[in-house]
Design brief:
alpha/beta, Spore Coat Polysaccharide Biosynthesis Protein SpsA, Chain A, 7-stranded mixed beta sheet, globular
Length: 260
């Protein structure tokens, strides 16, 4: 497989999930008794990606404690941000990790489960010529509340419609990308740019291919949607339930808070 690294963004405050996020980070919220970030790492390892960097900030000690489990040693690292850098800012700050390879960039506090091997294969072997990025998309049940993408006949992004009334479709940006070194280099050369979706994506209109997630994608940013996600099933790699971290996690009061 082509050299692919993954940068998982897990530093956010999760303010819409309060009071849950007063005690527990959004990226570790339970889905059917397992932390969200574990699903992400399971999907990546199953897809052959074994070089992962996770950024942390809010309640970072919990995220870093999770990553320090033995099953992640040697292929998952974390980097702490004293203040949030923004998506593009995180790429630039970790340029040594991101340059000279394809990078999977994902907001790992969203709940996604799909055929990642097909996503990778499309980007590496099937995306339209001249594109430098593949954006995962999904069908948004409430298009006026999502970032809707407008595509040409080749599935290339030609426009964005961010939370507008009567958008042209229900196909939304899942905030999961495969990006080529050209994009990383552009970010490095524009130190004033910090937000990937607002400041970077518009500069690459006509160069962004798309791949539709036919599986699960939810923004678990509200307690209602987090509760709905507990009914979802995801066939992916999860690790031994007998380890100490998982046992402590199962006793965490966050589970009862979600159920109430």
């Amino acid at each position: 497989m082509k050299n692919t690294k993954a940068l998982l963004l897990a530093a956010g405050l999760g303010t819409r999930l309060k009071p849950l996020t007063d005690i527990w980070p959004k990226c570790l919220m339970p889905i059917r008794g397992r932390p969200l970030l574990e699903y992400w790492l399971g999907i990546l390892q199953k897809s052959g990606i074994d070089n992962v960097l996770v950024n942390t900030h809010y309640l970072s000690e919990y995220v870093e404690g999770f990553i320090k489990q033995p099953q992640f040693t040697g292929w998952v690292d974390s980097v702490y941000e004293p203040s949030l850098l923004g998506t593009a800012g995180t790429i630039r700050e970790n340029i040594g990790f991101c340059q000279n390879s394809t990078v999977l960039l994902a907001h790992a506090d969203n709940w996604t489960c799909c055929n990642f091997s097909d996503f990778l294969n499309y980007h590496n072997n099937q995306r339209p010529k001249g594109t430098v990025m593949t954006m995962m998309t999904f069908t948004c049940p409430n298009p006026s509340e999502c970032g809707i993408v407008e595509l040409d006949h080749d599935g290339i992004v030609v426009g964005f419609h961010e939370k507008v009334k009567n958008p042209p479709s229900n196909l939304a940006n899942a905030a999961v990308y495969l990006i080529e070194p050209e994009v990383v280099k552009w970010i490095l050369n524009h130190p004033e740019v910090n937000d990937f979706s607002i400041e970077v994506l518009p500069r690459f209109l006509g160069k962004i291919s798309t791949w539709k997630n036919q599986g699960i994608h939810r923004d678990i940013g509200t307690i209602k949607i987090l509760k709905e996600a507990q009914m979802d099933k995801c066939e992916t790699l999860v690790w031994d339930e007998d380890n100490l971290w998982q046992q402590d996690f199962l006793n965490n009061p966050i589970h009862k808070l979600i159920d109430t």
